[in-house]
Amino acid sequence: MNNGYIYNLGQLFTAISNRCSERQALRYPDGTSYTFSELEKTSNKIAEYLLSKNLQPRGVVAVFNNKTFLSYSVMLACLKIGVVYTNLDPNSPIERLKKMILQCNPDLFFVFSDAVSFLEQCAYDKDKTVVYNSDEFERTIAGKTDSLPAVNTIVSGTTPAYLMFTSGSTGFPKGVTITHANVLNFIEWTKITYNSTPEDVFTNINPMHFDNSVFDFYASLFIGATLAPVSEELAKNPRKLLDAMNVVKPTIWFSVPSMLVYVLKMRALKDTDLPTLRIVTFGGEGFPKGQLRNLWAVWGNRITFINVYGPTECTCICSSYIVSDKDMNDDNLLPLGPIAPNFGFVVINEENQPVKDGEIGELCITGPNVSAGYY
After folding, report:
1. What are the average pLDDT values for consecutive 10-residue runs of the chain, which has 375 residues?
2. Contact, 339 vs 318, CB < 8 A?
3. Which residue from 143, 166, 153, 60 is spatially nearest to 108, judged by alpha carbons?
4. Phi and psi, residue 215, nearest 5°
5. From CA 325, how far away is CA 346, in angstroms rounded?
6. Which residues contact 201 (CB under 8 A, 6 or more apart)?
7. Which one, out of 72, 112, 322, 368, has a CA that is 20 to 30 A from the CA of 61?
């Protein structure tokens, strides 16, 4: 940081944690919580641990992320020292996971104990593996310093922050390289669009290997707000999910529409659920209008609905649309909404020329959230 200017995400989080040190950063449905100070200190210890492993600048750390306090601390530690993290799904088919590991060639794996046997099937290097929810790892980092260790490399806006793998619909999952500058711009957009403050509580229903989780993690912790993680197991049961949400008292919800449709179809939603909620955001797929009307009938009178759009390659979200009563009058899918203020877009034909109004073409997006490319 120079004259108060933030160059990278690690600096931003440290500034936020200094300002909000005793506020809740993580709030779990079982009543467990962690402060920003605890996240800051533990991520600094892990950063020192990572540096002791002689990781090279822009090296890759793979995290089998189970939304624990240590999982988030590892992500923050990587950001602070200019190492790139990627969250991997232990439930992925083995061959898909092998492709991703081969593509990014991680220097280190952080694995929770239940995923060790799974990773063994990928023929990984055991010397590169840390079981981070073990007593051994806890003892290892306990002796590290609470303050951020000296970093020999410059972590700037162009430094990659994370790799997010696409779904692989083209036949092969691609690792998208998102930079610190990409995410810093994204955070500013979320603050303006959601009028978010440290008083907000964001859900973390989305799996951490899924692009929507970028919103959960960065839009909350990096403004001093609270993140409320929900385990994958808990999210499978609609009533248990809502009961958990009633405990953590979220103000901003983000999920794919199919999660909300599932809750509706299982008749789990009551109009008394989530009285603290002020915004429901959904994206990643179209919301069937019939089901949207059902949700609107329950929450539409008191909660703002926002439909968002954005490919993985554009740092999670690049356009948003606020739903209104008039949208309930037809069966069309919701519009993608206005592009983010400092973005641009054009719809082009096969000759790379802009199409006329009403014609079909390919959407091309420009702007500061567009990634550095594929890894």
Report:
1. 73 97 98 98 96 88 96 97 94 88 93 82 80 93 90 91 87 92 97 98 97 98 98 93 97 97 94 96 96 96 97 96 97 94 92 93 94 94
2. yes
3. 60
4. -60, -50
5. 29
6. 27, 220, 225, 226, 227, 228, 248, 249, 250, 251, 252, 276
7. 368
